Amino acid sequence: MTQPTITDLATALDDDSRIDVVLAAAWDAFDVVGRLADSLALDEDGDEMQAMLVGIKCAEGRRLLPPPEHGRPLETGAPGPGRGGLEPYAVLLRHTEAALRRLASTPEHANDAEQLVLVAAHAATAADLLMPVRQDGGRAS
């Protein structure tokens, strides 16, 4: 993923005035990291099972969200090498978690709070699982 894409998603995740924008950004974050996990599962220098678990958590989170209206996947690039290359994606997932928990804590989203917290938990788990996919110094996928 390119830095502008991460920045754009981060900006959208912070738009507390529009739940549709936040949910679309969360869906896109899960989609981007899920596709990354698929490619990492084929990376011979990575942990295939760990990558598959990340992909599963991203799919579970995405399944609980409405798809964004734009209807097309975001363009992504290859991550940098080693664990450091995965860090921006883990940070994006943590940002997604925080945005969803923030929405869940507001009175106007009380009816959806349980589901938002569940989706946030998927983002947190995927972030935790992502970093160990690669060992330090591994090549980029």
Rough outline: globular
Total of helices: 5
Q: Characterize the biggest β-sheet.
A: none
Helix percent reads 55-70%
Which spans of ≥5 residues are poorly predicted at pLDDT below 50?
137-141
Measured by DSSP, the beta-strand proportion falls in under 5%
Give the N-terminus to C-terminus distance in angstroms: 12 Å
Global Rg: 14 Å
In total, how many beta strands?
0
Secondary structural class? mainly alpha
Mean of residue pLDDT values: 88
Order of helical and strand elements: HHHHH
Summed up, what is this model?
This protein is an all-alpha fold. It has 5 helices and no strands.
List keywords for this structure.
single chain; 141 residues; mainly alpha; 5 helices; disordered C terminus
